[in-house]
Design goal:
The chain is of the alpha/beta class. A 4-stranded mixed beta sheet has the order 2-7-6-4. Strands 1-3-5 form a 3-stranded mixed beta sheet, with no helix packed on it. The chain is elongated.
């Protein structure tokens, strides 16, 4: 029979590694990348962003940049003083905390005219709600059942330890 310390170690390992295993890399703008004349709010609509996920901004180096701003900066297309621009052309931003997140391009008038800006809401990394019985299988996204199988895995491990 498994000891309490063995169960604790297994649960602790799952708690530590599960968020990174299930993290999703979202390529901002999909195949269009981070550029002007893309509706990033339409792109973000319907996506679930969780703590631990990553936003990947792909663009030609030197043509655009990425600035993390607050709500006012988003509305005004202006970054607060001291904001450091990401400029690699392959910028990865880890969504480390829940809440509202705003990103703009600070090059020329890309934010104002482009409109090259993105607003998302990041939710805590917890078990995602199960889809309702009326939801069709075709409409369930990978994020919708994001952690569902982990319960089965934990049950299986515990069952093996208890045997």
């Amino acid at each position: 029979m498994a000891s309490i310390s063995q169960l604790f170690v297994i649960v602790a390992m799952l708690a530590i590694f599960t968020p990174t295993i299930f993290a999703t890399d979202f390529i901002v703008g999909d195949d269009k990348g981070w550029t002007i004349n893309v509706d990033y709010q339409a792109w973000a609509q319907g996506k679930q962003f969780y703590v631990g996920d990553n936003l990947v901004f792909n663009y030609p180096e030197g043509v655009h940049n990425v600035l993390k701003v607050n709500g006012t900066g988003f509305q005004e297309c202006a970054a607060p003083a001291g904001t450091v621009a990401l400029t690699s052309g392959k910028d990865v931003i880890n969504l480390a905390t829940p809440g509202r997140k705003w990103y703009i391009c600070g090059v020329s008038k890309h934010c104002e005219v482009g409109p090259q800006k993105l607003f998302i809401t990041v939710t805590p990394a917890s078990f995602a709600p199960s889809p309702s019985p009326t939801t069709s299988a075709a409409s369930i996204s990978g994020n919708g059942a994001r952690y569902g199988w982990i319960i089965v895995t934990i049950g299986t491990i515990l069952g093996m330890l208890m045997a």
